[in-house]
Structures are given as C-alpha cells and as structure tokens.
Amino acid sequence: MTAGTLILGFGAFPGVAENPSGTLARSLEGPGRKVVILPVTWQAIAEIPALLEAENPNAVLAFGVAPRRQICVETKALNAAHPFRPDASGQIAAPRPLDLQAPPVLASSFPALRLAVHLGRAGLVARPSRNAGRYLCNALLFHLIAHERALGVPCAFLHIPPFSNIRGGRRVLERAARQALWFMNGERTRRKLSRIDTEFPA
Predict the structure, then answer these.
(1) What is the per-residue pLDDT for 193?
(2) Closest C-alpha to 138, from 172, 112, 111, 105
(3) 3-class SS string, 43-71
(4) Residues 61, 180: contact at Cβ < 8 Å?
(5) Which DSSP helix (H) or strand (E) runs through 176?
(6) Which residues fall within 8 angstroms of residue 164, CB to CB, at 6 or more apart?
(7) β-strands 5-10, 33-38: how paired?
(8) Measuring CA to CA, how many Å separate 186 from each of 78, 92, 154?
(9) What average pLDDT values come out for the chain (202 residues) when binned by 10 residues?
(10) Could you say which DSSP state residue 156 is in?
C-alpha cells in the first residue's frame, strides 16, 4: 500500500530539547501524508530502508536541524558513519561505510536549485547545499538518495535553522515547509508524467 507522501523529522537529541525539524514535519500532517518523527539514534537510521519498503511512499520530504541561518536543500550524502558525537541513546558510531556496496558519495537527482529558487520567490532564504554534515542527517539523506535511485521516488532533505536563528522563527519555517511540500507534489507529478511519456511515446 502506498502511503502518499512520507514526511520525516527528528526528535530531541543532546543539545536540542525541542527539535524544530519534528515540529515542521508535524505541521504538515494531513490526508495523503504520513508523518514519522525519528529518534535521533543510529538504530533508527538503520531501520530507514525497512520503513521506506513498508510505507512505499510516492514522495519523501525530510527535515533536519543545523546551526545555520538559512534553509539548505541538501544534494549529496557521504557513505560513512562518523564518530562525530553521541546520539540520543548515548551511542557513538563506529567509523564505517553505511553501505559496503555503494560508492563513497551519493548525489541526489532532486532539483534542489529549483526548490531553492521556488522558496526564494516565496520570500524565503534558501540555497542548495553539498554538505549534509557527518551526523545522522547525512545518514538519513544517504538512505533517501539510495531509495530515490532505486525506485525513482522523489526524495528531498531540507536542513533548517533553529527557530531563533531566522527572522520570523517558527511561523516563517512552517511556511517554508508548506512551500516545499507544494513543490514536492509538483515534482512527483512531473516524474509520473515523464514515466508515462517514456512508456507510451506518442
């Protein structure tokens, strides 16, 4: 069964008692959408492929928080777990590849620049990013890109600043989340039509 759009955010972790990525994800709850708030643990990330298989979404929109002052649409993920800092359970990752069969870096096919431009036209400060960090956000993005590559499902990951780092705070970032979802719906439709054109050429 297809869940429609799968929306992912994170829960609390050391240093962040209320994770704004989870707040944004929950703000998008509605018909045809499944919201999942992930524990900030390596175990939760290891279960992402199983979650994607079980939910079978036709699009995935994920949020993470980073100490920046603008929205970053991530475009690349490193195939590596790093002993950067403990997760919410206290576990420190062993330095290792996330997937022994995958290349060192995965690049997303999601149109990050177009999404950033779309957000900019809506009065929001956003840019594409090639650095998703070395923590769990990078690992989540890696699994999303692998899923995107395997099934052609559009997957986007947005790093958002803490509410206190951006003018307008939560209100502005919730508007950005709605705009990103609107863009994702359009991208999902575009890819569906592209597949139809390929399978049934005129």
Answers:
(1) 80
(2) 105
(3) HHHHCHHHHHHHHCCCEEEEEEECCCCCE
(4) yes
(5) helix 169-199
(6) none
(7) parallel
(8) 28, 39, 10
(9) 86 85 97 97 97 97 94 98 90 94 97 97 95 95 97 96 91 96 92 67 56
(10) E
Tokens of 97: 């590849």
**β-bridge pairing 155-160 and 71-74:** antiparallel
Domains observed in the chain = 5-199 (3.40.630.20)
Query: Could you tell me which of 53, 22, 20 has the C-alpha nearest to residue 169?
Result: 20
pLDDT of residue 202: 52
Q: What is the DSSP letter of 39?
A: P
- DSSP H or E run through 174: helix 169-199
pTM of the full structure: 0.92
